[in-house]
């Protein structure tokens, strides 16, 4: 299925990510175990690598209805089953993890994977990790700011002296192991706030845009702000990389994709909204049709429809990476595998060709 993949592809990078949600299949009412979910995640990553996709991401949640609380452990297992695909967290809840431990875990992953480790850092839509690890939710933003600044310093030097507010100081401390890459690539996950885009630009790290619905044009001001802040801070424009993330489902025809995905997508938002303490009502078919329409950011459709949506966003953002979440709502793994095949063979080649011009 593949010739040369991974780092040798031209055009934008195409990949997948999972949050490891464990939801009931709405058609049969069955919920798989965390063990089975983990096996399916590793199998999905293996298929993505074999098919020539560029990136695979694993998210972090600390709840019984999610299987992946430790992305570097899961990614290390994936590293042993894959050869070329880049391995990233999606996302790391940076406010509630010690940056030194985070760096050492991903440096270890980088060595195990021959230089394929990356991090997408975010503040998280869920807050269970704050009481779980002894952090005050009132320090939500301050923790993130201090931790990413420290992480970037750890990335630069094998010995560090540092003082901060939330963890003990470091005095000429050895930070080991060092990654195979010169530095571990880090992106900041941005959901829609200008402050996050400004921070990513100021630091000169990548920006991963979470565009889960609506018209993507509303995110254009964030992209412009990121690049403007980054260049004003002295960073080269070519190093200010943008990734776009979104939900997706692919079938041979757009109508087939909508018909098959609707019960799962409705199911997904029903239990995610409950998890977040929000009103949970079943998504109507009319609401879903609107979310999946041609000008929106929900990637549901035929390969041609998905290609057009990705390229439309590329015209807006000029981004370097697109990664889709296609395993949500209790979707059977057979359908996930079919989606990976379509993304790799019918969608990615044309998108890469068009974006390499």
Automatic annotation (TrEMBL):
Under Gene Ontology molecular function, one entry of this record is: monooxygenase activity
Q: Which UniProt keywords apply?
A: Monooxygenase, Oxidoreductase
Source domain of life is: Bacteria
Q: Where is the Luciferase-like domain?
A: 16-316
**One Pfam family linked to the record:** Bac_luciferase
| Protein's UniProt keywords contain Oxidoreductase | yes
Q: Which GO terms describe its cellular component?
A: cytosol
What is the protein's given name?
A: LLM class flavin-dependent oxidoreductase
- This chain's source organism reads Cytobacillus depressus
């Amino acid at each position: 299925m593949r010739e040369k993949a991974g780092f040798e592809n031209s055009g934008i990078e195409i990949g997948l990510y999972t949050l490891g949600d464990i939801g009931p299949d709405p058609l049969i009412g069955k919920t798989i175990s965390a063990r089975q979910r983990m096996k399916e995640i590793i199998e999905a990553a293996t298929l993505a690598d074999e098919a020539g996709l560029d990136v695979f991401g694993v998210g972090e949640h600390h709840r019984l209805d999610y299987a992946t609380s430790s992305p570097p452990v899961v990614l290390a297992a994936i590293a042993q089953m894959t050869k070329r695909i880049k391995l990233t967290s999606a996302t790391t809840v940076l406010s509630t993890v010690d940056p030194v431990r985070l760096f050492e875990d991903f440096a270890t992953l980088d060595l195990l994977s021959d230089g394929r480790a990356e991090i997408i850092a975010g503040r998280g839509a869920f807050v269970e990790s704050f009481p779980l690890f002894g952090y005050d939710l009132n320090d939500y933003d301050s923790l993130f700011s201090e931790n990413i600044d420290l992480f970037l310093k750890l990335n630069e030097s094998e010995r560090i002296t540092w003082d901060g507010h939330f963890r003990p100081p470091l005095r000429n401390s050895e930070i080991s192991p060092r990654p195979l890459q010169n530095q571990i690539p880090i992106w900041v996950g941005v959901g829609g706030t200008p402050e996050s885009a400004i921070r990513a630009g100021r630091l000169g790290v990548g920006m991963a845009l979470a565009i889960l619905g609506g018209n993507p044009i509303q995110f254009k001001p964030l992209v412009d702000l990121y690049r403007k802040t980054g260049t004003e801070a002295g960073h080269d424009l070519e190093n200010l990389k943008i990734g776009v993330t979104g939900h997706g489902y692919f079938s041979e025809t757009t109508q087939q994709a909508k018909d098959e995905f609707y019960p799962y997508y409705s199911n997904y938002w029903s239990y995610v909204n409950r998890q977040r303490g929000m009103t949970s009502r079943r998504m109507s078919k009319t609401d879903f049709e609107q979310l999946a329409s041609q000008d929106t950011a929900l990637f549901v459709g035929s390969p041609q429809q998905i290609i057009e949506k990705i390229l439309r966003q590329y015209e807006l953002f000029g981004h370097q990476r697109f990664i889709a979440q296609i395993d949500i709502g209790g979707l059977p793994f057979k359908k996930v595998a079919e989606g990976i095949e379509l993304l790799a063979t019918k969608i990615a080649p044309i998108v890469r060709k068009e974006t390499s011009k």
